[in-house]
Amino acid sequence: MRLGVLGCAEFARRRMLPAMAAHHAVEIRAVASRSAGRAAATAAPYGARPVTGYARLLADPSLDAVYLPLPAALHADWVEAALDAGKHVLAEKPLTTDPARTRALLERARGLGLVLRENTMFVHHGQHAVVRRLLAEGAIGRLRALHSAFTVPAPSEGDIRYDPELGGGCLADIGLYPVRAAVHLLGTRLDVAGAVLSVAAGRRVETSGAALLRRADGVSAQLTFGMEHAYRSRYELWGSEGRITVDRAFTPAAGHRPGLVLVRASGTETVTLPAEDQAAASLTAFAAAVHGRAAGAGEEAELLAQADLLARIRRAAGLGAGD
């Protein structure tokens, strides 16, 4: 898969570009930036061609796909431009900041015969497939509740996550993870029972929040998230006969060996799994979709449910799209 990178975000340079360079199914062909120097510096370690300007990269007929790590507020327009240029697209999360625009872009991609994916990497990590298998097998009895938390220390001053014009705020950047975990583990039919979003003094975006989701059968999800906190990345599933705890659930290091804790009346068991690079797993899933080896209906349904829930949590908390 001949790939172009649309932007030189720190996350792309630190995490995704090295994963792409090491991946057998990906070849980094070009890197674009509005700055010629930044494009050159980012492209050089990978032998890629630097391009000044995003539109120039999209005009390159040799590229099969683009990876888009731009600020969230810019995603929708550049995703649309990439699709219109005939490129498959892997965009950083959130795909857009508006559920209607997300739906429209997914429909546009389908109509053009192109693959459009959001790079929510954790859902491709094998530990969550094991959790879903344990639930299906009734390892903890009947599921009763999900408790999930993702909190991170404060970004540096001037970080785009503090800029509302660029789509900043903790809900779509950090809260997205426990929301997607709820969708991934509980299904797409979830309602918002309540939500709180708080803006720290001196900030123009929400910096912490919580949400309560519910399923029609009474299963609930309690979610906590924030970006000026001590680090926490975990979820617990509570059942009628036990519970499953997953630590480092959302951003495990590539060398981390997950240890799922399974507690039942008969005792406590730790299920130790192999280390896995979820960035590589996400790229593998994207490449398989591009080459027609993987259906995307389930992932698309989860993405749409996630987009709807993020918007409904914002409304339930009393913050409008422009607040």
TrEMBL record:
Domain GFO/IDH/MocA-like oxidoreductase: 130-244
A matching Pfam family: GFO_IDH_MocA_C3
Transmembrane segments: none
InterPro entries registered for this protein in UniProt: Gfo/Idh/MocA-like_OxRdtase_N, GFO_IDH_MocA-like_dom, NAD(P)-bd_dom_sf
Occurrences of domain Gfo/Idh/MocA-like oxidoreductase N-terminal (ranges): 2-117
Gene3D superfamilies according to UniProt: Dihydrodipicolinate Reductase, domain 2 (3.30.360.10), NAD(P)-binding Rossmann-like Domain (3.40.50.720)
PANTHER family, sorted: OS10G0403700 PROTEIN, PTHR46368
Protein's name in the database: Oxidoreductase
Organism: Streptomyces pharetrae CZA14
Phylogenetic lineage: Bacteria, Bacillati, Actinomycetota, Actinomycetes, Kitasatosporales
